[in-house]
Amino acid sequence: MINYQLTVSGQVQGVGFRWGCYRLAQQYGVSGFVKNLPSGQVYLEVQGLPDAVTNFIARVESGPTPYARINQVSKHPLPCQDYGGRFTIRR
Q1: Please, what is the angle between helix 50-61 and helix 17-28, to 10°?
Q2: CA angle at residue 40 from 27 to 75, to 5 degrees?
Q3: 73: domain CATH number?
Q4: How many domains would you assign to the chain?
Q5: Residue 43: inside a domain, yes or no?
Q6: Any domain includes 87
Q7: Model-level pTM greater than 0.85?
Q8: CA spacing 20 to 30 A to 69: which of 19, 42, 58, 79?
Q9: Would 84 be classed as within a structural domain?
Q10: pLDDT band, residue 91 (cuts 50/70/90)
Q11: CB neighbours (10 Å) of residue 32?
């Protein structure tokens, strides 16, 4: 298992970005969460099997919805955590 935190900037709030990430997480079988930041960025933590996490991140970087415009994605590894086996949308 691997775990990453991502901070995504661009046009990522108000365009279904978090919901798109949730759907991708279901598709790839990863756990973690996604939430909007007051700065206008979106923050994610994603954990799972290496191939699943890598593919999930690649899809996030290309924009999980057609309305999102990604300017930058910052990625950093994290220690594995207990997300209860789920991926959630936080407020």
Answers
A1: 150
A2: 55
A3: 3.30.70.100
A4: 1
A5: yes
A6: no
A7: yes
A8: 79
A9: no
A10: confident
A11: 23
Within-domain flag for 9: yes
**Residue 54: strand, helix, or coil:** helix
Range of the domain at 8: 2-78
Catalytic residue check, 90: no
Active-site residue among 23, 36, 55, 59? 36
Per-residue tokens: 4: 């990453």
**Which of 18, 71, 86, 91 is flagged as catalytic?**
18
Label residue 62 left, alpha or beta by phi (over 0 means left) and psi (-120 to 50 means alpha): alpha
Q: What CA–CA distance (Å, rounded) separates 66 from 75?
A: 22
DSSP classification of residue 62: T
Q: In this structure, are residues 75 and 5 in contact, taking their beta carbons and an 8 Å threshold?
A: yes
Tokens 């991926």, residue located: 87
Asked whether residue 19 carries a pLDDT value surpassing 90, the answer given is: yes
Give per-residue pLDDT as tens, 31-81.
999 999 999 999 999 999 999 999 999 999 998 899 999 999 999 999 999
